[in-house]
Each structure stands twice: as C-alpha cells, then as structure tokens.
C-alpha cells in the first residue's frame, strides 16, 4: 500500500490541457509538473511523509547543479500545510545532496 501522501498525489494526477504534460495537484492550486524526460527522487521522513521531491535531467549526479527541489511541510496531525521551493525558485539549478541546506519559500 502506498503512503497516504502518494495515494493523494496519485488521485490528483491529471493531464494539463494546454501543455499536454502530466501534472499533480499537491496543495491547494499548486502543481508539480511530471515530465517523463526528468528523473525524480523522493525523500520521506520517519513517519512516512513525503518531504522532498527532486527532478533533473536523467543521468544527473545528485551533486550536480541540475536539480529542481520541492519541500513539503506538515502540521502535527500529519496534514500537508505547504510546499516550498529550494531558494524560492523552481529553476533546475540546485544540488540534491544539499537539499537540507537551502532556505525554502
């Protein structure tokens, strides 16, 4: 069985009518674009909550400045409260290995 967060993500997957790309509604109206040409990394906390999602060109080293990193936060009840971009930007210019060192907004 998938963790609750991923179950929710799977329920909210859809195809964007304009771009034709698959996207996932994750929090309110914010979207993560799922592009099949990107490699994805997911990291969970000890409670099984999805904390980080990273995307980069396939074959990118986790130490390369080619990653887009999104962080999720949760309240005490385990409900997702926000999604935040590393360095406040969705650009593919972050290092996955440094995800814990970025400021998120």
Model description:
The chain is mainly β and 105 residues long. The protein has one domain. It is built from one helix and seven strands, in the order αβββββββ. The strands form two sheets. Strands 4-5-6-7 form a four-stranded antiparallel sheet, with no helix packed on it.
Task: Summarize the entry for a quick read.
The protein is mainly β. The chain contains one helix and seven strands.
Topology of helices and strands:
Elements: H1 4-11, E1 13-15, E2 22-27, E3 30-34, E4 39-44, E5 50-56, E6 68-74, E7 80-85
Antiparallel strand pairs: 1-2, 2-3, 4-5, 5-6, 6-7
Structural class: mainly beta
Mean pLDDT: 76
Major sheet size, sense and barrel closure: 4 strands, antiparallel
Q: Tally of extended strands?
A: 7
Percentage beta strand:
35-45%
How far apart the termini lie comes to 31 Å
Oligomer: single chain
Shape: globular
Q: Calculate Rg over CA atoms.
A: 14 Å
